[in-house]
């Protein structure tokens, strides 16, 4: 287990630390207040052996100083892409940093993944983090108060509860960006791990990975995960969307009912027996198969390679502010942004 001392320090004038959550069944989750990052999730296999299933680093300095591709972090103020970094809100045009090809990604140069959050409350099973994003930060309007609470239950559920409020109309789309390998981080390719996504439609992208605005059926395409299949089964197929992303990097449309938790996906590893179910109140889930990670030094000196992990980011659709037919990410003064996501672990 990662040492809590390796996360003690000061950054941006604020203290950093590591918070360890445990349940009665032996599951362990470690979270740092730098970037509200999930550092580790230790889950037993069918023989009872614990393994950390989340890619990451051994120290807070590696997250701060390294080229971390948002590993385990909360992304915001707006996760995913905003096309050309531009949007109009209440008649005013805003311009954000372009940090991913021609587009704005995951909140900009210093999004929520690169700041120190305030630790408001901790317990053996939960940690409560807050951050105040000031008006104009990264180009976004409004002072935005954000809260995320991580809770590990005795039902083997890691629950993420998000909350935000603003003093001025703004846009918000928060998402957790953990890189999972159910056989254990750094153990190799995820091709033989199985995945089911509870969505019959997806939002295709252009060559810059920005959504086109279309909503297409997955039927008859490599995007069809309506029944469990190997992640690697179709990933090399001659299909435009897979070429654009270098693998999977698209959003699936979920059977969304506002404020209601619905099943988003089920992933499993036949070799270890580990299973992860994801439930969310969000309308979409982004599958990313770590297509751009190459020779990345991670925990214990392990080298993470391309497609050795996958992300399932529950969120609103990318570029929703510029696509009026997508579910809205606009938040007004007096309104409350809230959503929840559950990762439920079991073994077979």
Q: How do you describe this structure in short?
A:
By secondary structure, the protein is mainly beta. It has helices spanning 60-65, 240-245; strands at 9-11, 14-16, 18-22, 28-32, 37-44, 50-52, 74-75, 81-82, 86-89, 92-95, 104-105, 118-123, 126-133, 144-152, 157-166, 170-171, 175-176, 194-197, 201-203, 216-217, 229-230, 249-253, 262-268, 274-280, 284-288, 296-297, 303-304, 311-315, 330-331, 337-347.
What topology does this entry show?
Elements: E1 9-11, E2 14-16, E3 18-22, E4 28-32, E5 37-44, E6 50-52, H1 60-65, E7 74-75, E8 81-82, E9 86-89, E10 92-95, E11 104-105, E12 118-123, E13 126-133, E14 144-152, E15 157-166, E16 170-171, E17 175-176, E18 194-197, E19 201-203, E20 216-217, E21 229-230, H2 240-245, E22 249-253, E23 262-268, E24 274-280, E25 284-288, E26 296-297, E27 303-304, E28 311-315, E29 330-331, E30 337-347
Antiparallel strand pairs: 1-2, 3-4, 4-5, 5-6, 7-17, 8-11, 9-10, 12-13, 13-14, 14-15, 15-30, 16-29, 18-21, 18-23, 19-20, 19-22, 22-25, 23-24, 24-30, 25-28, 26-27
Give short descriptive properties of this protein.
348 residues, mainly beta, Beta-galactosidase, Chain A, domain 5, nine-stranded antiparallel sheet, five-stranded antiparallel sheet, 2 helices, globular
Structural features, described:
With 348 residues, the protein is mostly beta strands. It has a single domain, classed as Beta-galactosidase, Chain A, domain 5 (Distorted Sandwich). It has helices at residues 60-65, 240-245, and strands at 9-11, 14-16, 18-22, 28-32, 37-44, 50-52, 74-75, 81-82, 86-89, 92-95, 104-105, 118-123, 126-133, 144-152, 157-166, 170-171, 175-176, 194-197, 201-203, 216-217, 229-230, 249-253, 262-268, 274-280, 284-288, 296-297, 303-304, 311-315, 330-331, 337-347. The strands form nine sheets. A nine-stranded antiparallel beta sheet has the order 12-13-14-15-30-24-23-18-21, with no helix packed on it. Strands 20-19-22-25-28 form a five-stranded antiparallel beta sheet. The protein is globular, with a radius of gyration of 19 Å. 48% of the residues are buried.
């Amino acid at each position: 287990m990662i040492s809590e001392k390796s996360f003690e320090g000061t950054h941006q004038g604020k203290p950093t630390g590591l918070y360890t959550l445990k349940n009665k069944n032996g599951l362990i989750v470690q979270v740092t207040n730098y970037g509200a990052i999930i550092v580790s999730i230790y889950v037993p296999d069918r023989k009872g052996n614990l393994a950390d299933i989340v890619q990451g680093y051994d120290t807070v300095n590696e997250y701060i100083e390294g080229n971390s591709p948002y590993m385990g972090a909360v992304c915001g103020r707006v996760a995913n892409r905003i096309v050309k970094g531009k949007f109009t809100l209440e008649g005013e045009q805003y311009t954000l940093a372009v940090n991913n090809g021609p587009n704005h990604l995951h909140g900009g140069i210093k999004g929520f993944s690169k700041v120190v959050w305030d630790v408001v409350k901790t317990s053996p099973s939960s940690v409560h983090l807050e951050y105040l994003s000031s008006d104009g930060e990264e180009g976004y309007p409004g002072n935005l108060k954000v809260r995320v609470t991580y809770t590990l239950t005795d039902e083997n559920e890691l629950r993420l509860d998000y909350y935000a409020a603003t003093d001025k109309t703004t846009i918000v789309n928060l998402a957790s960006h953990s890189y999972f390998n159910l056989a254990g981080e750094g153990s190799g390719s995820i091709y033989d791990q199985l995945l089911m996504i509870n969505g019959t439609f997806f939002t295709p992208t252009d060559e810059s990975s920005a959504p086109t605005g279309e909503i297409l059926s997955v039927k008859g395409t490599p995007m069809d995960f309506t029944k469990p299949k190997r992640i690697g089964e179709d990933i090399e197929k001659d299909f435009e969307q897979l070429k654009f992303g270098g693998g999977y990097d698209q959003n699936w449309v979920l059977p969304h009912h506002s404020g209601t938790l619905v099943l988003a996906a089920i992933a499993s590893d036949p070799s270890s027996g580990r299973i992860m179910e994801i439930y969310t109140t969000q309308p979409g889930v982004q599958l990313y198969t770590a297509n751009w990670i190459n020779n990345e030094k991670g925990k214990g000196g392990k080298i993470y390679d391309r497609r050795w992990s996958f992300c399932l980011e529950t969120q609103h659709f990318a570029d929703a502010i510029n696509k009026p037919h997508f579910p809205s990410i606009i938040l007004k003064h007096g309104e409350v942004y809230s959503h929840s996501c559950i990762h439920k672990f079991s073994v077979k």
